[in-house]
Design brief:
With 322 residues, the protein is mainly alpha-helical. The chain has one domain: Orthogonal Bundle (ABC transporter involved in vitamin B12 uptake, BtuC). The protein has 13 helices and 2 strands; from the N terminus they run H-H-H-H-H-H-E-H-H-H-E-H-H-H-H. The protein has a two-stranded antiparallel ribbon. Helix 7 packs antiparallel against helix 9.
Length: 322
C-alpha cells in the first residue's frame, strides 16, 4: 500500500498558474517592504518551501521522508564550517546543495530499496543519528550552543545589515522561482511520469525496463540538494546554526507544510510554508503557551475539509469560475 498524504487537486491552466505565481511574488515583496521585520519570516518560509519541493518529488512516488531536515542541517552546517575561510554567499549556496546532494546519493543508495513506512522511518532514523552526532561532537559543532555565522560577503561586498536582509530575501525568492520551474518541468518530463508510476504501477515500470530504484534515487538526490539549498538560506538568514535543524520535529514541520500547502502544484509548498510561518509567528505572539495547539488545529481543519491543501482550495475556486 502506498503512502498518501494529500488528495489530488483540480488542475489549473499553465497560464493561470503562472499568473498566480507572479501575484504571489508581488504579494511577498509588498509584505516585506510594508512590514520590514517580515523579511526574516518570509525568507525562512521561502527556504522551507524549497525543501518541501523536494518532499513533493518523493510524494509523487508515494513516499514520505520523516527525516528530510537532515539535508537542511547539512546545508546549514556547510555554511557554518566554511564561512570563516570562504565567506562568499554565492559560493556557499551551490556548495551547500552539492554536499547535501552527495549525502543524498550515499543515503539514497540504501533507502530507495524500501517503500512506504520503512522508507519514512529509515530517513527519520538517519536524521536522528545526524542530530546525535551534531549534539555530541562539541569540539567541532559546539553542541546545542550552535555555531554563529558572521562576516558573509555577497559578490565580494559586505553590505550593511538591512541591505544584507534584502539581498538574502532576493536570493531566496529567486531560488524559489528557479526550483519551482525546475520541479514543474521535471514532473512533466518522462522521468517525472516514471516517478508517478512508482506510486501506482511499479511492477509495470520494471517490466518496461525502467528501474524504479534509479528513478526514485534521482528524485531523492534532487530533493536532498534542494534541502541543502534551503539549509544554506536558513543559516544565512538566522546567522546561527544548531543541531535542532536535524531533529525530528524539524522534519515534522516540513511534512506539515507539505500537507498544508498541497501536492497538486509546485506553488503548494510555498503557500504552505508562508502560511505555516505566519500562523506560527502570530499565534506565538497572541498565545505564547498554546501556539502549537493552534497550528495543530489548522492542520486538522485542512485534513478534514481541504485534503488537497491550500493549493487544492485555490485550484477548486479557480475551476468553479471557469
Amino acid at each position: 500500500m502506498s503512502t498518501t498524504v494529500t488528495a489530488p487537486a483540480r488542475r489549473v491552466a499553465p497560464i493561470g498558474e503562472a499568473l498566480l505565481a507572479l501575484l504571489g511574488i508581488a504579494a511577498v515583496i509588498l509584505a516585506a517592504w510594508a512590514v520590514p521585520w517580515l523579511k526574516f519570516v518570509l525568507t525562512v518560509a521561502l527556504a522551507k518551501g524549497i525543501a518541501v519541493l523536494g518532499i513533493l518529488l518523493l510524494l509523487r512516488a508515494g513516499q514520505v521522508s520523516f527525516g528530510h531536515s537532515m539535508f537542511l542541517a547539512i546545508g546549514a552546517y556547510t555554511v557554518a564550517f566554511l564561512a570563516p575561510a570562504l565567506p562568499e554567499a554565492l559560493l556557499l549556496l551551490p556548495l551547500g546543495a552539492a554536499i547535501a546532494g552527495l549525502f543524498g546519493l550515499v543515503i539514497g543508495l540504501f533507502v530507495v530499496r524500501y517503500r512506504d513506512i520503512f522508507f519514512g522511518m529509515l530517513n527519520l532514523a538517519l536524521s536522528m543519528v545526524l542530530y546525535s552526532l551534531l549534539e555530541k561532537l562539541y569540539d567541532l559543532t559546539k553542541g546545542t550552543d550552535g555555531i554563529r555565522v558572521s562576516g558573509l560577503r555577497f559578490a565580494g561586498m559586505t553590505p550593511d545589515l538591512p541591505t544584507q536582509e534584502w539581498v538574502t530575501f532576493g536570493l531566496a525568492l529567486g531560488l524559489a522561482l528557479l526550483f519551482g520551474l525546475l520541479v514543474r518541468a521535471y514532473l512533466g518530463s518522462p522521468m517525472g511520469q516514471a516517478l508517478a508510476g512508482i506510486k501506482t504501477r511499479e511492477t509495470r515500470l520494471e517490466f518496461m525496463g525502467v528501474s524504479a530504484r534509479r528513478v526514485l534515487l534521482s528524485a531523492y538526490v534532487m530533493s536532498a540538494a534542494m534541502g541543502g539549498i534551503a539549509g544554506t538560506l536558513v543559516a544565512m538568514t538566522s546567522r546561527h546554526v544548531t543541531p535542532q535543524l536535524a531533529y525530528w520535529t524539524s522534519s515534522g514541520e516540513l511534512v506539515f507544510i507539505a500537507i498544508l500547502g498541497g501536492a497538486g502544484s509546485a506553488l503548494g509548498p510555498f503557500l504552505g510554508a508562508t502560511a505555516f510561518e505566519l500562523v506560527r509567528v502570530y499565534a506565538a505572539a497572541a498565545v505564547a503557551d498554546a501556539w502549537q495547539m493552534i497550528l495543530g488545529a489548522v492542520l486538522l481543519l485542512v485534513i478534514l475539509f481541504a485534503p488537497g491543501g491550500l493549493w487544492g482550495i485555490l485550484a477548486g475556486r479557480l475551476g468553479r469560475r471557469r
